[in-house]
Design goal:
201 residues; alpha/beta; Rossmann fold; 2 domains; 5-stranded parallel β-sheet; two-stranded antiparallel sheet; 9 helices; 14% strand
Length: 201
């Protein structure tokens, strides 16, 4: 009998929408999570597989602690060609880690891929159901500007690289609203997990 692959839920959302919090809620419901950002941190951390290659492309962007994300960010933000060179390095490595995760959890009914630029990088092709995490514009701005080292200008630059939230919501199979109290957001996640698992049964 052919092995049924897990049903893949793609989790995405613009900066400051509460995607990591929602991802954790899925984990608490027993859904294994592959976090693309965490994978990148691992690849760029101390002894990370990509540190040497990134230093070769962007001299001065790394140290014994791995990639200095702020220095590297300053080198590529606003420079499309530099960003492209960096992505050519990172995306295949992350894809490899994602395949290994898929293999490890192949007996699960449901797994979650947290992919920040899911629509922007056409990753929606590889998932069965897209969940967009969304919040009001003011909530988003307040959350992002509260981050250490974040400026209004940097926030606008990051936002410019991302598909507008309204467009993401339109393309989504499900939307999780994080402008609500956290308990209500959690209920949305629980209902969605139950609904998806029931549809697979």
């Amino acid at each position: 009998m052919e092995r049924r692959k897990p049903y893949i839920v793609g989790l995405t959302g613009s900066i400051g929408m509460g995607k990591s919090t929602v991802g954790q809620m899925f984990v608490e419901e027993g859904v294994p999570l592959f976090d693309a950002d965490a994978a990148v941190h691992e690849l760029q951390g101390p002894d990370g597989a990509l540190v040497e290659a990134i230093e070769a492309l962007f001299p001065g962007s790394t140290s014994s602690a791995g990639v200095d994300r702020q220095k590297l960010g300053a080198m590529v933000l606003g420079d499309a060609a530099a960003l492209q060179r960096l992505e050519k390095l990172i995306h295949p490595a992350v894809a490899e880690m994602r395949l290994a995760f898929l293999e490890k959890h192949r007996d699960q009914p449901l797994i979650l891929f947290d992919i920040p630029l899911l629509f922007e990088k056409s990753g929606a092709k590889g998932v069965d159901h897209v969940v967009v995490v969304s919040a009001g514009e003011n909530d988003q701005r307040d959350r992002v500007l509260a981050r250490p080292g974040m400026t209004e200008e940097r926030f606008e630059q990051i936002k410019a690289l991302q598909m507008p939230d309204a467009e993401k919501r339109q393309k989504a199979d499900s939307v999780i609203d994080t402008s609500l109290p956290q308990a209500e957001t959690r209920q949305q996640v629980q209902k969605l997990v139950q609904k998806l698992k029931a549809s697979l049964a």
